[in-house]
Each structure stands twice: as structure tokens, then as C-alpha cells.
Cell division ATP-binding protein FtsE
Amino acid sequence: MIGNSIIKLQGVDIFQQKHLVLSDVNLHIDKGDFVWLIGQTGSGKSSLLKVIYGDLSINTGQGHAGGYDLNKLANKDIPYLRRKLGIVFQDFQLLTDRTIEQNLLFVMKATGWKDKKLIAERIRDVLEKVGLRSKIKKMPHELSGGEQQRVVIARALLNDPEIILADEPTGNLDPDTSEEIVMLLKQISLSGTAVLVATHDYHIIRTFPSRIIKCESGKVLEDVQIG
Ligand SMILES: Nc1ncnc2c1ncn2[C@@H]1O[C@H](COP(=O)(O)OP(=O)(O)OP(=O)(O)O)[C@@H](O)[C@H]1O
């Protein structure tokens, strides 16, 4: 971390293949920030997130995320960078053939946790944070959509990330459940973990006003107001 800065992009150009998607991106996200990311389909939101989690490399400008220099990121660094980032994406859903506890255990083993007592404590802690301690032995299909999304957030918290990156975390949820999920993410940001949420849901943004950045016409605009 450089000071309180968790994400810092300066003059970064973002390409998909040879296609320039976003140019001269300047973005700062600090400890505990809660930031909405908006923009039309195809405007570059996912590409921006990909740069942050090391799935797209950068050649122009300077980029840092979770203490890693994105200009110099080697393949071997990527798993370590991702431990500094809690990823809540639609395509990282729960494994349906095992309990909530086993889902969390799976990630912990994959990220190098060995001590059984510490693992059990950490699983209890993250489930407590998302209000689902009593569901530890349940299978995913025994939980509601909102509860499953809470487990995905718990899983993202396991390695105590500096930032949560959430792509449409309320996409499949009804309005009340969406509000509960955003309230949880807000609460997480208040405890010091930054949160960046990509969404098309302006209703939820109006309900939880916060800093908004927008991908538009090949740029990332800062401090956008929505009507
Ligand atoms: N793997 C790829 N190869 C080539 N071009 C791509 C690739 N992925 C995305 N693009 C292009 O990059 C541009 C930005 O796409 P991106 O997925 O970042 O948009 P988005 O704002 O996240 O859209 P959505 O809201 O639909 O998820 C689009 O023009 C898209 O067609």
C-alpha cells in the first residue's frame, strides 16, 4: 500500500486486443472508500476491473493495486495480488456440491491456509460478518439468493482483502435483498476494506449515495452525478 491508496492508476490506457477501450485512466481508491462504477454495456467497466485484478496488462501510464506494481506484474504474482482483492463476480459462484463450510475451506486450502484451528476460526469470523453463522452446514441450494450472495462476500473476505471488487452483485436479487447486500458492503467499507461496485442499478445508487465513477466514450469520469 502506498499511504492509504489501494488502487492508483495514472495515465493508463486499457486495451482489449488491439482495441483501445479506455484511455488516460486516472483513478484513486483509498482505504475504506465505497465507489460505484457505472457505464453502458461495452463501455469498459469489466476491462477496468480486469486491469485491477491483473487479467489485462498495462503498458502506458502507471498502475498499482493492493501493493503490486501493475506495470511489472508477473504471472507468478497474480495469485498473490488476488488475495489482496476480494472478488464478488457473477461467474465466481458457490460450488453446489458442498456445504458453505466446505466452500470456504476449499478457497482457504487453495490459498495456502494449513492450521485447522485458524481455518475454523476464520470461517466462523467471516460468516459472522455476513450474518450467516448458523448456516455453516447448509448446502448452497438450501439458502436464498441473498444468503448465497452473502456467502460469496464472506468467501471474498477470507484473506482479509484491501478491496472488494463486486461486478453486479445485486444483478439477480429483488430490491429489498439488493439493499441488504449493499448495506453489508457499505458496512464492510466502514471497517476499512475499500469496495468498488460495478452496477447498472441506478435505484440502488440513489438509495446509497456515494462516489460514482463512469466509463463513457473511452474515458473514466470521476465524481459523476446521476439524475
Ligand atoms: N476479450 C475481448 N477481446 C476483444 N474485445 C473485447 C474483449 N472483451 C471485451 N472487449 C471489448 O471491449 C469493450 C469493453 O468491454 P467491457 O466488457 O469492458 O465492457 P463493460 O462496460 O464491462 O460491459 P458490460 O456492462 O456489458 O459488462 C467492448 O467494446 C468489448 O466488445
